[in-house]
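Thought: the user wants the 3D structure for the chain below. I'll pass the sequence to the structure tool as-is, report back what it returns, then summarize two notable features.
Action: structure_tool
Action Input:
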Amino acid sequence: MREEGLVRAIGVGSKDSTVLTRAVRTGLLDLVMVSGRYTLLEQPAASELLPACQHHDVAVVAVSVFNSGILARPEPPDDATYEYGQAPVAMLERAREIAAIAGDHGVELPDLAIQFPLLHPAIRSVVLGMRTAAQVRSNIERMSTPVPPEVWEQIDVR
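Observation:
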């Protein structure tokens, strides 16, 4: 279809970075959408998927960068969600550690959540789900908030 000019790019999306890596290695893709696997809280896509994408010149779009809610507020609440369920205590504690680092530098956790994936050269875009005009405005502001380099240096990406 690409050769016939019917489409400009072919891609797939998943939250399973292993499946996406296998698809990238076929050499048939132009784009992958990785859901929640390259975020402030977890980066399993960094081990194989992102290097494979760079090797095969496949663009990456990061989605679910708020990890279904835990990274969406400046301070994660006790009832924060992760993977669409109650956030595990360890995950909640880690999100709060990152929020404290952000706050120490005058930025907020959601600012970091939106901008973090774009620090990796394989990631070309971040897609955010929004329901209201206020959320659109907020995300635009968060994307353009300057994050001091020290913040990224202090966050121990795991």
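Final Answer: Structure generated. The helical segments are 17-24, 49-55, 89-104, 109-115, 133-144, 149-154. The longest helix spans residues 89-104.
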